[in-house]
Structures are given as structure tokens and as C-alpha cells.
Amino acid sequence: MTMTTAEADKILSANFAPWVLELGLTVEGIGGDRALLRLPWSERLAREGGGLSGQALLAAADTATVIAVSAARDAFVPMTTVQQSMSFQRPVTGADVLIEAVLTKLGRRMAFADITLTDADSGALAARASTVYAILG
Description:
The chain contains 3 helices and 6 strands. By secondary structure, the protein is α+β, with helices and mostly antiparallel strands.
């Protein structure tokens, strides 16, 4: 069975802290080893100069990984971040961000993902991230 975006949105709303939900993330697409989320532009998330804050981008990448692991396992299971790193390449100002998490390895107890974050208006790459997760359930 393949997870739908509606099911993935339910995982998002049921399993994340209120401050993560306040980012307004939505699941745009879901596949066997990937998830595509949208982070809507908000002045509340902007830093001085108008660029979207790195903290918001890191949280979005982390969240997208959980949704990708859930899609690959066809259900949410408890998991935790072991490692996350991000390289910022250009600021995003006044535009939504598309976050695509692609699993590079999924084992019984560990998951690895590469994440790209792009400006939804221009398609320009804003950041790249990698995550490692421990699967607890």
C-alpha cells in the first residue's frame, strides 16, 4: 500500500511539536523513498534582510525526513534524529520553499537521507542537508 499525501499530512499534524506545526508545512508529494514538503513564506520566519531563517529550514528538512521514513515504512514509527547537517547556498526571500527528502538507505534501525531545499518561485537551490535517524519502533 502506498501512503497518500493526506495520510502523510495526518502524520505531520499528529506527531510534531506545536512550534513545528506553526511553520505551516504541507506534504506536496510522497513516494516509496521520498517526501516533498512545502514551507510557506512568512515574515515571522524571516531574519534581518528578509531571508528565511536557517532554523526554519533545518526544522523543515528534519520534518521532511520523518515523513519520507514514514512513507517508506508505510506508517509512522517513533524515531529520533542522530545527525543533521546543512549547507546554505543562497537566501530565500518572499517565496515558499520546497523540501525534498530522499532516503539513501533504510535499515531496520537506521535511516539516511539527503534533502534539497529550493525556492519554489525560481527553482534555485537554497540549501542541501543530510540526516541520519535512529528508528525506535
